[in-house]
Amino acid sequence: MTSVSRRRAGRPPGESRTRERILGAARSLFAEQGFDRTSLRGVAAAAGVDVALVSHYFGSKQRLFAEAAALPVDPAEVVPRVLAGPREEIGRRLIEQVLDILDAPESRQRVVALIRAAASEEGAAQVVRERLAREMLEPVAAALGSSDAPLRAALTNAQIVGLVMSRHILGVEATVAAGREQLAAALAPALQHFLTGPLDRR
Amino acid sequence: MTSVSRRRAGRPPGESRTRERILGAARSLFAEQGFDRTSLRGVAAAAGVDVALVSHYFGSKQRLFAEAAALPVDPAEVVPRVLAGPREEIGRRLIEQVLDILDAPESRQRVVALIRAAASEEGAAQVVRERLAREMLEPVAAALGSSDAPLRAALTNAQIVGLVMSRHILGVEATVAAGREQLAAALAPALQHFLTGPLDRR
To answer: Which of A75, B43, B139, B202 has its Cβ near the most Cβ atoms within 10 Å?
Structure first.
């Protein structure tokens, strides 16, 4: 059946280009509509290919999601950049990295799709828990030499997820309208507190 | 048709008790399954009533949601409580109120349902934007006499939404395992910063 519909859809020359086109369409739809309302059929239509081709490459909606919404950055690149420099400016460096990701349309779309889906889909929640918290923020917190690195990473993660919800999902006017420098200045001290501040002072 | 199915479902003596039972079932299902996966039929089954009765009382899923997931607190009660006391402890008083809400099962369920749904449903996003940010947190920020009350309210809101996502929706282990006092102590300074700190210092 797959080969029939491939023929019907006219199999494109570059497999990887088609795959990328499907992933791009999936990212847009997952970000706009959320996980539940996005269908393989809708992704196929947006990518201009037959739905059987989407199934052939990705199998299920869960698998398509996992590939489309992987973190848009490689922790191995970002973590050293956040760590390099004075310890008391780590909050500032982290928020700059986060805003870089959120200000580029393609990577913003991935993050929004991921967080939107994480609210309703356990598979996506797991990606946020493991990749964002464990692979990216825990190494940062651990490198600072604190005993409570997991809690520091989790609170930092919560702050970033809250920002994405406010600015890109709920569309709270004040965070949408705020300039990049204004957001960075306002959020850096809170991230700095979570990463290096005294967490247990009454 | 309504009167037939009411008879079939065995109309209970107290209308308001039935309404409350339906709302309770709706809250549980919206919180567990999210907006998209919850159906009027599922709510009716969980409440032990005929689906026509649910339609009769609430009309659409959107209206049922709006009633089930209204904020679990009245801003007119909470705002004065947060404002009463030393200005430099307002972050602490706010996080105590938030943790009170999140530690009581029924009100936690409402907040979780609301935020989960806000990720996929514009109607729910609007409730979070208007009721949480505008009615509750803006008056707090405005009472502190700052010119940038909307941004302060929005960042405070983002922090709270991020906490709910982390602890109750994503289930990030470190925030789930943290004790109440530990969370309050860790989050109070960040909320204090958003409400009264210098937002624009480089």
So the answer is: B43
Please tell me which residue of chain A has the smallest CA distance to B133: A172
Out of B68, B87, B119, a domain closes at: B68
**Considering the domain boundaries, does residue B28 fall inside one?**
yes
Task: Inspect the interface and report whether the beta carbons of B37 and A37 lie closer than 8 Å.
Answer: no
For the segment B63-99, what is each residue's pLDDT rounded down to a tens digit? Answer: 898 888 777 888 888 889 999 999 999 999 999 999 9
Helical H segments across chain B, by residue range: 2-9, 15-37, 40-47, 51-58, 61-68, 75-83, 90-103, 105-118, 122-127, 138-143, 149-164, 173-177, 180-196
Residues B109, B21, single domain; the answer is no
Residue B158 has pLDDT above 90, yes or no: yes
Q: Please say whether the beta carbons of A72 and A101 come within 8 A.
A: yes
B146 and B166 both lie in a single domain: yes
Query: Which residues in chain B are closer than 8 Å to A133, comparing Cβ atoms?
Result: 172, 174
Q: What is the least distance, in Å, from the CA of A13 to any CA of chain B? A: 37
- ipTM rounded to 2 decimals: 0.83
Q: Which residues of A7-17 are buried (b: 16+ CB within 10 A; e: fewer)?
A: eebeeeeeeee
Shared domain for B86 and B51, answered yes or no, is no
> Can you spell out the DSSP letters for B116-144?
HHHTT-HHHHHHIIIIIIIIIIHHHHHHT
Phi-psi region of B43 (alpha: psi -120 to 50; beta: other; left: phi over 0): alpha
The first and second tokens of residue A107, run together, are 């990577």
pLDDT digits (tens, 9 = 90+) for A133-181: 778 888 888 888 877 899 999 999 999 999 999 999 999 999 999 999 9
CA pair distance A111, A143, nearest whole angstrom = 25
Using CB atoms, which residue from A162, A172, A182 is nearest to B159? A162
Q: Are A13 and A91 members of one domain?
A: no
Chain B residue nearest residue A196, CA to CA: B186
**Contact between chains at B154 and A160 (C-beta distance less than 8 A):** no
The answer to the question of residue A141 being in a domain is: yes
Cβ pair B43, B29 in contact under 8 A: yes
Residues B182 and B176 sit within 8 Å (Cβ to Cβ) = no
